[in-house]
Amino acid sequence: MTTYIIRRLLLMFPTLIGILTITFLIIQFVPGGPIDQMRSLLRGHASVMGEAGGGATGGIQGLKAQEMDPKYLEELKKTYHLDRPLWERYLRTFIWYSPKDMKQPFAERFFNRDNWDGFLMFKFGDSFYRNKSVLELIIEKLPVSASLGVISFFMIYIICITLGIAKAVRSGSRFDTASSIIVLIGYSTPGFVLGLLLIVFFGPGDRAIAHMIPIAGLTSVGTPGYEEWTSWQKFTDYLHHLAAPLTCYIIGGFATLTMLTKNAIIEEMSKQYVLTARAKGLTENTILYKHILKNSLIPLITGFPIAFLTMFFSGSLLIEQIFTLDGLGLLSYQAVIQRDYPIVLGSLFIFTLLYLVGQLLTDISYVLIDRRISFEESQG
C-alpha cells in the first residue's frame, strides 16, 4: 500500500508537467495575445471617439493617434515576459530563480522562497487585466462555485441513494417505472435550458408568471437595510437565491447514480448470502440495510473523494451567466477570451492537482472499504 501511494505521488509530477506543457504550447500558437488585445482595445476606443466626432476623417486620425507607442509596447512585453525567449517563458511557468538581493550570501538567497517563482512554488503570478494575483481571484470566486457544487453534490448523493434503494425494493412496480421516466427526463434536460425557463416564468421580468427568482448573486448584499437583518433572515435570503441555480445544477445528476444504486442492490439481492440470511429468519429490513446495502454501495462510496473535489471546484459558465453569478466558470471563460494566461494556467494547475489527489484518495478508499482488495496482490 505504501509503495503504491509513493508511486502514484511520483507520477503526479510528470502528469502535471505534461498537461501544463501541452496547454503552454497551445497558447503560443493561439492568435490574439495580451498585446493584440491591448491594440484592439485602443483601436476600438479610437473608432468610437471618431464616430462621436461626426466624421470618417476624424475617426481615421483618432485611430492613428491611438496606435501603441513603441516604448509602451516594449514595457508591456517586459511586464508580460513576452520579451523573453520561449524556453525561458516555459521555465518561468514551472520554476524560476530570480534573487532580489545579490548582496546576501548564496545559501540564504538560494533557500529563500521569495527568490523563487513558478507554479511548483505555488506562485501563479498576477492577472494581466485584473490587477490581482491568480490565487486571490480564485479564492474570491470560489464561494459561489463551492456553494453550488458542495450542496448539489450532497443533495444528489442523498436523493439518488434513497431513490435507488426504493426502486430496487419495488423493482418492476409502477413506482419504479414512473420514477425512471422522471429521472430520464431530468437527465435529458440541459441545466441551462431549465435555467432559461425558470427566468422567463419566475424571474424578475415583467412577463413572468410569478417573481420568485432574485435578480443576481447569492445574497442581497447592497439592499438597503440588509446589514440590519437577523442571521435567520440572511440565511433564508441565501437559500432563496440558491434555489433556482441549484435546481439547474442537480437536474441532470440523478440518472446515473440512481440507476447504479438500483442495479447494485438488485445484483446483491440474488447472491447466496442473502438467501442464507433469509433462511436464518432475519427481517427484510435487516438484510437490506445491514448486509445488502453495505456491499452494494462500495462503488458509490469509493467514488466519493474525486466526485466531491470535482463538485467543490466546479463551475458552470451558462448557469452562472443566466443567474448572474460571478464564479469560477465565468472567471475561466473570461480568462480564455481575454488571453489572461496566468489565470488559465494557474486554475488549470490547481484543478489538475486536486483531480490527481482525488483519484489517489479514491483508490485508497477501495482498500479501506473492501479489505479483499490489495494493491500488492494485484501487482504480483
Structure description:
Helix 7 packs across helix 10 (231-250). The chain has a domain at 134-379: MetI-like fold. The radius of gyration is 28 Å and the shape is globular. Helix content is 70%, strand content 1%. The longest helix is centred in the middle third of the chain and has 36 residues, at 134-169. The chain is mostly helical and 380 residues long.
Largest sheet features = 2 strands, antiparallel
Q: Overall pLDDT, averaged?
A: 78
Considering the protein shown, what is the CATH homologous superfamily of the domain at 134-379? MetI-like
Tell how many strands the DSSP assignment holds.
2
| DSSP summary: helix tally | 19
Helix-strand sequence: HHHHHEHEHHHHHHHHHHHHH
Radius of gyration: 28 Å
Report strand order across the widest sheet.
Answer: 1-2
CATH architecture of the domain at 134-379: Orthogonal Bundle
Overall morphology? globular
Low-confidence stretches: 46-65
CATH overall fold name of the domain at 134-379:
MetI-like fold
Q: Work out the strand percent.
A: under 5%
CATH class of the domain at 134-379: Mainly Alpha
How helical, in percent, are the residues?
55-70%
The secondary-structure class comes to mainly alpha
Give the terminus-to-terminus CA distance: 13 Å
